[in-house]
Amino acid sequence: xxxxxxxxxxxxxRYFEFGGTGIPLLMLHGLGCASSFxxxxxxxxxxxxxxxxILIDLLGFGFSDRPDDFGYRVEDHAExxxxxxxxxGFEQIDLYGHSMxxxxxxxxxxxxxxxxxxxxxxxxxxxxxxxxxxxPIAAMGERAYINGGHLLRCEAAEAVGDASWVATMRxxxxxxxxxxxxxxxxxxxPDWRSCFLRHPARKxxxxxxxxxxxxxxxxxxEYGIAVHVVPDAGHSMGLENPAGLATAIAKAMS
Length: 254
Known about the structure:
By secondary structure, this protein is an alpha/beta fold. It has one domain: Alpha/Beta hydrolase fold, catalytic domain (Rossmann fold). The protein contains 12 helices and 8 strands. An 8-stranded mixed β-sheet has the order 1-2-4-3-5-6-7-8, with helices on both faces. A hairpin with a 4-residue loop joins strand 1 (about 1-5) and strand 2 (about 10-20). Helix 3 (about 75-90) packs across helix 4 (about 100-110).
């Protein structure tokens, strides 16, 4: 596993890199998850075989450091992703983000401008007020979540058999999860939806079949955004159907 030293705070943001051809594809995970856990099978699936792919664990998640002096808001993560791209000297990238990682991808793309060729989101947070996972977390106080709420969330997920999500949740920083959830609920200005719609990249949005119906499935194409559906999968499509997600990403970049 490789490591990038973030400029502020000084910390290690770790990532897997699959050597290959083409413009690098950066993949960003959602809240409580890790790209190193979710995306190896996606990046090595037939649809993306031979593709240069970089799977980033955002600070506070997966194998990356968990500094206490970091904001862990969407914009904070986006700045680190931008710094990583600039440090590598990439002239262009393709950028994929899932759920919270989609919001991070939108803000990173806003910072990177024309460096982003394709901007691909899957069930991303485009609006404020959070979602089914982030809203109840943000409703708690920060100390309350860190001192007990995080453990309760993990135990609740374990009780319903969500072993994969429990594994990445236990590896994540409770502070990072709380502040990430709070950021998703509070939103941004300008909002992520507006930033996504106005970005000059070729844009696509991916749904898991079990997440439909969703109003954006019909609304986004009206703005010239391609919509793809991963069969036999819901929100956690990277784990539920990695080959299907790889196919959707490949279609988005075709």
